[in-house]
Target: Zinc finger A20 and AN1 domain-containing stress-associated protein 8
Amino acid sequence: MDPGLCANGCGFYGSAEKRNLCSKCYSIFLKDQTISKSKANIDLQQENDNTKQPLIILKENSDQVRAHDNSEKQTCGDIKRCKTCNKKVGLTGFKCRCGDVFCSRHRFPEQHACKVDYKSAGRQILAKQNPVCKADKLDYRV
Model:
């Protein structure tokens, strides 16, 4: 018995296990099938979400809305500067464990007089990661 050609007509041989499709056409078929199932699941979830939550409309005073908009504009204009030399650092700033931002010159703790104790912090981390394992002093106990 000679296996039949692919049902899509690509010219390769198909198998009955794969719905008379070749391996490439079968993988495409599986991808399309999973995508359609996921779209159906997403649509069902969106419909369920829309039916569960009622629409609530709140009225706000226009003065409060304007004040809120002005406060957002001020925080967006915050420019990152080096704590030591006050140089603009932008996206290239280095954040230290002390919580401040520094330029490339002052990024190391020795250069900006950082008060964070790195030695004790490292020891604490090692102690947490490597707990002490004490063996029983009497070997004959079970």
Q: What stands out?
A: The domain at 79-126 is CATH 4.10.1110.10 (Zf-an1 domain). The chain has three helices and two strands.
